[in-house]
Design goal:
mainly beta; Porin; eight-stranded antiparallel beta barrel; 1 helix
Length: 219
């Protein structure tokens, strides 16, 4: 909890300092994409899970091309694994199902944005930086031909804090921007010592998606 509090106090301090400067803007972001982990253990199958998120940010100009952008968000990650339902002494397959493993995170992004041709109304940009994510919830949703059963999973086997990198490329038009985003974790989502099945793999989350950002206000 100390690490979580430190992260959020740091971001609040950064944003407060940003608001004291001129030409500072802030806005909101929504995103949707696909999440999975890599590498996948031998003999298992992991499919991508459609996830989404939202956040608020500050944009601090450095010059006409560069700006610093801290952001606080909520983002869902996870994966899904299909399974078969067996019955009888012969082990006949009588149905199928799907496990959706869902994790809710509070990411804190510290990124820099580079704008090409900022004097133009419509201009491309590149965003890159670091992300620290705090795990707040996890659950497994078991779907079968008969029913859907969500089950809350304890957090003891999972890292509460993970770090990673973020890369985004997009287009800005007035207050609106749209971008393609990639986020790769550098630390495994499992708590050390890892679960035996993943002991040598140290699986890490990957997230790819589309982000829509709207600048709400200038200071």
């Amino acid at each position: 909890m100390k690490e979580i509090l430190t992260i959020y106090l740091s971001v609040i301090f950064i944003n407060t300092a940003c608001l004291a400067q001129s030409e500072i803007s802030w806005g909101a972001q929504a995103k949707i994409g696909f999440s999975n982990y890599r590498p996948v253990e031998s003999g298992n199958l992991s499919n991508s899970l459609v996830t989404y998120g939202a956040g608020i940010y500050s944009n601090v100009p450095i010059n006409s091309h560069f700006s610093f952008r801290p952001q606080i968000s909520w983002l869902r990650k996870g994966f899904q694994q299909p399974y078969n339902i067996f019955s009888g002494p012969g082990g006949l397959i009588v149905g199928s199902g799907n496990h959706k493993v869902v994790f809710d995170y509070l990411p804190v992004d510290l990124t820099f944005v580079y704008r090409l041709w900022p004097e133009r109304t419509l201009h491309p940009f590149l965003q890159a930086g670091a992300r620290g994510s705090v795990l707040i919830n996890s659950r497994v949703i078991r779907e079968s031909t008969n029913q859907t059963t969500p089950t809350t999973v304890g957090l003891d086997n999972y890292r509460r804090l993970t770090i990673g990198g973020l890369l985004s490329i997009g287009i800005e038009w007035h207050r609106l921007s749209v971008s393609i985003e990639a986020n790769h974790d550098l630390s495994t989502y499992l708590n050390p010592p890892p679960i035996a099945l993943f002991e040598d793999l140290k699986p890490k989350f990957q997230w790819y998606g589309i982000s829509l950002t709207y600048q709400l206000r200038n200071f």
